[in-house]
Amino acid sequence: xxxxxxxxxxxxxxxxxxxxxxxxxxxxxxxxxxxxxxxxxxxxxxxxxxxxxxxxxxxxxxxxxxxxxxxxxxxxxxxxxxxxxxxxxxxxxxxxxxxxxxxxxxxxxxxxxxxxxxxxxxxxxxxxxxxxxxxxxxxxxxxxxxxxxxxxxxxxxxxxxxxxxxxxxxxxxxxxxxxxxxxxxxxx
Length: 188
Known about the structure:
Order of helices and strands: HHHHHH
Shape: elongated
Number of strands: 0
Distance between the termini: 55 Å
Largest sheet: none
Structural class: mainly alpha
Oligomer: single chain
């Protein structure tokens, strides 16, 4: 049995477990409300982490295409760390803050008819980006973990196949997170 298969077999159950536990834990945490803690400073920070993730991913791809495997590994690891920090900040913010409603110009907790008219069709763009961002973030978690594991196990051929699927989805999740933040930020 090769070392590659051994590493992948050894850590595959952990990847599966983490891919299930994290979304379940996040869903449970969204039912929690912590009062008296002001983390209103977090959204621009976690949006910046998404932007940094996107930059790191593109740089990682450029690095591996130039044959710089060590830089590629470092950049992907940094992108994973940024994504983890994003998730921690995102959850912390949302358990300590009321949900922000897109188009709620007067910040009364609802979007009335006049406010809906004011945002117009941009609401549909926002809703589409937010929905796809959330759904793809659930899909990208196991993809990232399996792709990372295959790279770590030096299973280059399989890592490349997985990366061709993982990269565009992860990049979309990172970039759409920034766009969603930019669209919702006037309503904080």
